[in-house]
Write a structure and sequence with these properties.
By secondary structure, the chain is α/β, with parallel strands linked by helices. The chain is built from 14 helices and eight strands. It is globular. Belongs to the DapA family.
């Protein structure tokens, strides 16, 4: 582990511009991890994507996450992943951040895709933990992987821990070590363990390391322990309302925040761990966005699942 210590990071560090950007980029705020609309033939529907983007432009998001889990990135080709980012960059209003998912299973592929995402207009990249050989993805492997990616990335890197999809959590000791890298800006933590999120904030105080909650279900709790924002699937549907929750938390209006937070818990669970991306895309249709079908092998909701989804929104006053 000796070569992983901070001096080695800095010795390997050559991209001073990116380092300066990492020090400067303020992630605080709400981001929807946008969905990818498809045609009936399962091609990416760029026109519908642009129509969604025009609607999102009217909501006070900090920016957009493109090619997160809700964008079905494992089902897109590399060319499609880059082209979707390019399309979003063209439509995105000035001043909004574009965070692009560039994680692949191998370090080399992640380095290459990261460079392509930066060239396509990403302000930062969101890099998911490699997970296929999960038994071997210990702290040492993770530190090595993310350090290599951050060393060569032209833009700042945000770590991405999403155990519900990958089956593993980025270990706390690895997060703390990586937080010292000058081009690693923060983490999107979707695990929902508030003690862990609070501890990451506490232990990285001196690093200017920014923590984003990875779900709307624990957004207020994450703000309470020092998170600066959230990347929330539910923001694809209830974006304005989640930005209002952010405003209440930041201004310390906790009673009002609590009431709003409680109304998000069930619909959020429905579009994430319970029913997943097909449910998110169905809910988007109800709220006037283009959701549509997922790419195979993801299947559409059954009639019973659709009724359950509607119930989770309507019983909380959203439909």
């Amino acid at each position: 582990m000796e070569n992983m210590k901070l001096p080695a990071y800095r010795a390997a560090w050559t991209r001073t511009q990116s380092h300066a950007a990492a020090a400067r980029l303020d992630l605080s705020g709400i981001y929807p991890p946008i969905a990818t609309p498809f045609t009936a033939m399962e091609d990416v529907d760029y026109q519908k994507l642009e129509e969604n983007l025009h609607r999102y432009a009217k909501i006070p998001f900090k920016g957009l996450v493109v090619q997160g889990s809700n964008g079905e990135y494992p089902y897109l080709t590399e060319e499609e992943r880059v082209e979707v980012v390019r399309t979003v960059r063209r439509s995105l209003p000035t001043g909004k951040l574009l965070m692009a998912g560039s994680g692949c299973e191998s370090t080399g592929a992640t380095v290459q895709l990261t460079e392509k995402m930066a060239a396509a207009g990403a302000d930062a990249v969101l890099v998911v933990t490699p997970c296929f050989y999960k038994g071997k993805m210990d702290s040492c492997a993770m530190i090595h992987h993310f350090s290599k990616v951050a060393d060569s990335s032209p833009v700042p890197v945000v770590l991405y821990s999403v155990p519900a999809n990958t089956g593993l959590e980025l270990p706390l000791d690895a997060v703390l070590q990586l937080s010292q890298h000058p081009n690693i800006l923060g983490i999107k933590d979707s695990g929902g363990d508030i003690t862990r999120i609070g501890l990451i904030v506490h232990k990285t105080k001196t690093q200017d390391f920014q923590v984003l909650a990875g779900s709307a279900g624990f957004l207020m709790a994450a703000y309470c322990v020092g998170a600066v924002g959230g990347v929330c699937a539910l923001a694809n549907v209830l974006g304005r309302e989640l930005c209002e929750l952010e405003r209440l938390c930041v201004s310390g209006r906790w009673e009002e925040a609590r009431v709003l937070q409680q109304r998000f818990i069930e619909p959020n669970a429905a579009v994430t761990r319970k029913l997943g991306v097909p449910a998110l895309k169905q809910a988007m249709e109800w709220f006037g966005f283009h959701g549509g079908a997922c790419r195979s092998p993801l299947q559409p909701l059954t009639e019973a699942e659709t009724q359950q989804l509607r119930q989770d929104f309507s019983s909380n006053g959203w439909l």
